[in-house]
Amino acid sequence: MAGPGQQRRALRLRPDAPAWRWLEDDGLEVGVALPVNAYATLVLTERADIESDARA
After folding, report:
1. CA distance 15 to 18
2. If 0-12 CB within 10 Å is exposed, 13-18 middle and 19+ buried, where does residue 48 land?
3. Which helix (H) or strand (E) holds 45?
4. Pick the residue with more confidence: 6 or 25?
5. 39: Cα separation from own chain's centroid
6. What tens digit of pLDDT does each residue of 25-50 get?
7. If you write DSSP's letter for every residue of 25-53 in order, what string do you get?
8. Contact status, residue 45 vs residue 32, Cβ threshold 8 Å
9. How far apart are CA 19 and CA 4, in angstroms?
10. Of 2, 35, 38, 39, which has the fewest CB atoms closer than 10 Å, so is most exposed?
11. How far is Cα 28 from Cα 53, in angstroms, rounded to an integer?
12. Is this model's pTM higher than 0.70 or not?
């Protein structure tokens, strides 16, 4: 139960305006519009099989 001054996040979120483009180094740039307090990393984690890049 949320106490005073706390906000709840929606259990579902629907990203809007998806966009992507291939980069010259074979990378992929992805973009979406999200509501306030939504995290893009969560969306990507749930929708993609992301592998760590040792170069990072």
Report:
1. 7
2. exposed
3. helix 40-47
4. 25
5. 5
6. 988 888 888 888 788 777 777 777 66
7. TS-EEEEEE--TT--HHHHHHHHS-----
8. no
9. 38
10. 2
11. 13
12. no
